[in-house]
Amino acid sequence: MTESTVNLSTKICFGPSGRAVSQEIDNDLLDNLLQHLSMERNANVQYFSMSLWFQERDLNGFSSFFIKESKDEMEHAYKFTDYLIARGQNIELHSLPKPIQKWESIEDLISFAFNLEAELTISLQQLYSIAERSTDVRTSVFLDPIVESQIKSEDEFAHILGKVKFSKGNPSAMLIIDEYLSKK
């Protein structure tokens, strides 16, 4: 870009954090990004709790699978905070509900986890829609790989739920699924 094409008299916008930004975030989009951040953090804590539940029952494959999922959700939360900070925002973390720690069955737990993933997918789709409505291409581009990863994660939980449901609580089948998950 040559010096003659840059408008030096254009006023620079600053976000709430004091960081220079070239495009402000729509308030509705910002609220929903912060809400989704809380959802990612909640999933992190819930999956950690689920990992402990399996570990207490010596189902280490399930436990390691949920520890990995917990870490993945925290990584997603980091991505959202990094993005929001890059967009000049302050991050206000909200309190999280206590995770569920008691389950009647493995199927109930996996069903809950699948629904948690489905809710995250819906939230991402809503974020994408709001970003498009507010012509915030930056956010759409940011969300693209996250949406793709989320769809894969939801599919994986559906696959595991199918295996668990098919096993009908048979202990031998659960041990086979546990072994399968230990290799993921």
**Main sheet summary:** 2 strands, antiparallel
- SS-based class: mainly alpha
Number of helices: 5
> Remind me, CATH topology?
Ferritin
CATH superfamily: Ferritin, core subunit, four-helix bundle
pLDDT < 50 stretches: none
Supply the CATH class: Mainly Alpha
Mean pLDDT: 92
**What does the overall shape look like?**
elongated
Q: How many structurally independent domains?
A: 1
- Helix-strand sequence: EEHHHHH
What would you note in describing this structure?
- By secondary structure, the protein is an all-alpha fold.
- The chain has a single domain (3-182), classed as Ferritin (Up-down Bundle).
- Helix content is 70%, strand content 2%.
- The protein contains five helices and two strands, in the order ββααααα.
- It has helices at residues 27-56, 60-86, 106-133, 137-167, 171-182, and strands at 13-14, 20-21.
- It has a two-stranded antiparallel sheet with strand order 1-2.
- β1 (13-14) and β2 (20-21) form a beta hairpin.
- α1 (27-56) runs antiparallel to α2 (60-86), α1 packs antiparallel against α3 (106-133) and α3 packs antiparallel against α4.
- The longest helix has 31 residues, at 137-167.
- The radius of gyration is 20 Å and the shape is elongated.
- The N and C termini lie far apart (48 Å).
